Amino acid sequence: MSCQEIRVSLDAYIDGELDVTTTLQLESHLSECDSCRRIYERYRQLHDSVRNEIRYFAAPKRLEDRIRGSVRPAGRDQNRSIWGIWFLGWRGWAIAGSVIVLAVFGTLLFQMTGRTAASEMLAEEVVSSHIRSLMANHLSDVISTDQHTVKPWFSGKLDFAPVVKDLSSKGFPLAGGRLDYIDSRPAAALVYKRHQHTINLFLWPTSESNSNPYKATIKGFNILHWTQSHMAYWAVSDLNAEELIEFAHDLEM
Predict the structure, then answer these.
(1) Which CATH superfamily is domain 125-252 in?
(2) Backbone angles phi, psi at 203, to 5 degrees
(3) CA gap 253, 120 in Å, rounded
(4) pLDDT tens digit string along 70-122?
(5) Residue 47, exposed/middle/buried by CB under 10 A (0-12, 13-18, 19+)?
(6) Please, which residues bridge with residue 218 across strands?
(7) How far apart are alpha carbons 246 and 198 in whole angstroms?
(8) Which of 1, 8, 57, 238 is the most exposed place for a label (fewest CB within 10 A)?
(9) Between the CA atoms of 58, 60, 61 and 63, what dihedral angle is there, to the nearest 10 degrees?
């Protein structure tokens, strides 16, 4: 099963709705795929939280007694009829309320898991682009340590002006840049160095203004993602996580 098929089937798997064959295939995939396993763990934790933490309230016996006592005295059959009508109406409202709560919660759950899955898939795409640039010997379209050479090179090739900084004084010299294609849109890829390590910095415009850093490790590469001034940044390298955070800090200054 592919990662996409796995993620579509996770809800049914957690609810025990899959057949034996599909269950075995899914569990085999989860044992080998770190990315899908992380998403599954979040699904499962959310499922357990809903089951264990949402409180159930049973109507107390005294409520029935109070309602019976407030009904105008009438014949026994009439009282039963009134109580029956009220009970059916109350039950209908209770069911309707439950449906609304479940619908709202389901929508929130879908949005949360959808965003998480999208971030995971985008991180995988960024790492794949980083690996391709190293394997295909196509690290840079413009090779230069001068930010005033690299930045103008992107003019007319992108619908935005990438922020290009010279960090050689911080120990992260600029090495060049290239065009890339990430998240279904053209992106700028700036290449920096740290000793023998290569850092690919992908950036493109976003609707978000600023966000806290997102850190991950995929296929042995460290990833750092953040947004600043409506620009999305993804830094990828085999550099250790501490130095990659230092690189991002120097870039934001």
Answers:
(1) MucB/RseB, C-terminal domain (3.30.200.100)
(2) -150, 145
(3) 28
(4) 765 544 555 555 555 555 555 555 565 555 655 555 555 544 444 455 677 88
(5) middle
(6) 221
(7) 15
(8) 57
(9) -120
> Residue type at 209?
S
Measured in degrees and rounded to the nearest 5, phi and psi for residue 185 equal -155, 155
Give the start-to-end residue ranges of the domains of the chain: 1-51, 125-252
pLDDT on residue 151: 95
β-bridge mates for residue 233, sequence order? 203, 226
Name the amino acid, one letter, at 69.
G
